[in-house]
Structure formats: structure tokens, C-alpha cells
């Protein structure tokens, strides 16, 4: 019988084991781990301990994400990310979320892809910073030349804002979510840098321990 520890040595952890950028990639082209596709009506999320994709919850509403939805490896939303949003004091304590537009219909999650950052949405969820980076699939035949959020049709961003403002709705219960601030590529890269700094502040010791064992 194999233990979980044995198996985790063979499967690279999407959060800790992957790099946010491939070698020699431009600063705005990032590796993304995808958790959900636009077809999903169940909220899937990475289990941080095991590195496997798990069912978080069935969606209560009929809406599904209007883009591929995942996170950036080796990022974490804590003190530095919270500083980017003056109206809050804390961030949500998860890897930094990212939405990726693709012209071709990608139908499966638990995959890694390269995406070009074009902007983001400053989401405040119940008093916590929970930014959503917006990107396009690198090399995409329709969206591949997009460099900034202003190059995308506004309806693309509006659909993301609508999804994130409603996907936690429960009839009769007020949920405080704000998705009013949409920002461009440069601010998105600053948020990503803050999330990378938070990651190394909180989880850098894991990599130091791994190097010490080599």
C-alpha cells in the first residue's frame, strides 16, 4: 500500500510545484492552473493539502463562469495584496484567481496553460480582497493579440463582473460583494507581484526545506 506522502512525491502540486512563469517568458505571460470551465455548474477548487481538484460546492444559481477560471501558482493573497485595496484590511487567503478567455472551447479542467495578462477586477468579498486577474490564452487566434483590458470588448468584462457579483447569491440573504473597479495590465502586474511576495512570505520556507533535503 502506498501512503499519501508517497503519491504526492510523484504528482507535482499545482500550487507549490509549478512555476508562475516558464523560462524566459515575458513578465505578462504566466502559467495558469485551470479549476473550472464555462460549462461547469459545480464549483471546483484545489485541495491545498493534496494538490487534487475537489468539489467545493454545487452552484446555487444557474450562472457559470464566462471564461476559464483558475489560479496562478506560487501566489497567495494576504497582507501585500490587501494593501492594493485601500478599503479593506485583509485578503482572502487563497492563491490569486485568474480568468482566461479562449476562442476555442476548452472543455476540461485540471490542466495548465500559458496566458497573457491584460487586466483585472478588484473584487471585495465580505470585506476581503479577492482580485480576479483577466487574461487571454497565449497564441489564441482571436484574442492572442490583446495586450490590455481596453482591447477586449467591454461585454467580456461585464460578464465577469456579473458572474462574480451573483455566483454566491442566496435568496433572502444579503452578500456584500463589490466588483466595480476594473483595471488594466499594469495594475494587474502589480497585484500579481504583491501576491507573489505574499506567497514567499508565507510559504517560502517550504522551498527552503525542500532544497535542504536535496
UniProtKB/TrEMBL annotation:
Keyword entries, A-Z: Hydrolase, Magnesium, Metal-binding
Q: Name one Pfam family in it.
A: Pyrophosphatase
**GO MF terms, alphabetically ordered:** inorganic diphosphate phosphatase activity
Top-rank lineage group of the source organism:
Bacteria
Cofactors named for this entry: Mg(2+)
Q: What class of enzyme is it?
A: hydrolase
Could you tell me which InterPro entries the record lists for this protein?
Pyrophosphatase, Pyrophosphatase_sf
Name residues in a coiled coil: none
Q: What is its EC number?
A: 3.6.1.1
Against PANTHER family, the record matches this protein to:
INORGANIC PYROPHOSPHATASE
Name of the protein described by the UniProt record: inorganic diphosphatase
Q: Which organism is it from?
A: Candidatus Seongchinamella marina
- Give the source lineage, highest ranks first: Bacteria, Pseudomonadati, Pseudomonadota, Gammaproteobacteria, Cellvibrionales
Amino acid at each position: 500500500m502506498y501512503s499519501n506522502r508517497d503519491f504526492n512525491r510523484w504528482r507535482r502540486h499545482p500550487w507549490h510545484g509549478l512555476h508562475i512563469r516558464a523560462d524566459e517568458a515575458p513578465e505578462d505571460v504566466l502559467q495558469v492552473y485551470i479549476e473550472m470551465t464555462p460549462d461547469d455548474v459545480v464549483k471546483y477548487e484545489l485541495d491545498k493539502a493534496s494538490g487534487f481538484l475537489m468539489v467545493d460546492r454545487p452552484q446555487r444559481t444557474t450562472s457559470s463562469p464566462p471564461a476559464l477560471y483558475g489560479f496562478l501558482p506560487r501566489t497567495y493573497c494576504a497582507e501585500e495584496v490587501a494593501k492594493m485595496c485601500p478599503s479593506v484590511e485583509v485578503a482572502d487567503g487563497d492563491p490569486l484567481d485568474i480568468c482566461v478567455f479562449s476562442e476555442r472551447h476548452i472543455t476540461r479542467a485540471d490542466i495548465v496553460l500559458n496566458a497573457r495578462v491584460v487586466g483585472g477586477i478588484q473584487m471585495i468579498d465580505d470585506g476581503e480582497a479577492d482580485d480576479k486577474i483577466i487574461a487571454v490564452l497565449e497564441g489564441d487566434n482571436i484574442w492572442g493579440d490583446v495586450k490590455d483590458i481596453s482591447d477586449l470588448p467591454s461585454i467580456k468584462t461585464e460578464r465577469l463582473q456579473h458572474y462574480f457579483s451573483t455566483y454566491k447569491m442566496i435568496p433572502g440573504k444579503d452578500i456584500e460583494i463589490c466588483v466595480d473597479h476594473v483595471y488594466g495590465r499594469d495594475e494587474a502586474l502589480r497585484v500579481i507581484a504583491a501576491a507573489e511576495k505574499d506567497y514567499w512570505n508565507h510559504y517560502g520556507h517550504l522551498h527552503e526545506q525542500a532544497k535542504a533535503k536535496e
